[in-house]
Amino acid sequence: MRKDGHRNLSRRERQIMDILYQRGRASASEILEALPDPPTYSAVRAKLRVLEEKGHVRHEEESLHYVYLPTVARDTARRSALRHLVSTFFEGSVEQAVAALLDLSAANLTQKDLDRISSLIDEAREEARKEGV
After folding, report:
1. Of the chain's two ends, which shows fewer C-beta atoms within 10 Å, N or C?
2. What are the pLDDT digits (tens) for 47-78?
3. What is the number of alpha carbons within 13 Å of residue 6 lying toward its C-beta?
4. DSSP state string for 80-97
């Protein structure tokens, strides 16, 4: 898959990828059932072919059916999407992105969540110190 990841996907292609990441693998009919405002079965198959040509999915044959799987690990795709989001909406500032997330989530964060976030910040500080940043 290219470095630009989900950026070059249509809305429907992103929806299909989301389903595949949630399920790990799915047939075209399972994807069709999970799609909001579903298109035709043929349209889903066509989108899957396009995603396969773009290198985002691959298929395996199971019991005379194709089952589709993402070609890139969810964590890798997640990181790519986050890089794009931070670059596009926060001028590349991780600080601004984190501040926006905290502002958005403040009412829903438990003490355990806040402790985990604090621990992650401490780890990032330690890593930066080691690298001399």
Report:
1. C
2. 999 999 999 999 999 988 999 999 988 888 88
3. 23
4. HHHHHHHHHHSTT-HHHH
C-beta of residue 115 within 8 angstroms of C-beta of residue 123: no
For the domain bounded by 5-70, which CATH number is listed? 1.10.10.10
Q: Which helix (H) or strand (E) holds 1?
A: none
For tokens 């930066």, what's the residue?
A: 128
Q: How many residues does the chain have?
A: 133
Q: Give the CA distances from residue 82 to residues 36, 40, 47, 104, 132, in Å, rounded to whole numbers and listed in that order.
A: 24, 31, 24, 16, 25
pTM of the model: 0.65
Q: Read off the amino acid at residue 85.
A: L
Does residue 57 sit in helix, strand or coil? strand
Token digits of residue 129: 């110190």
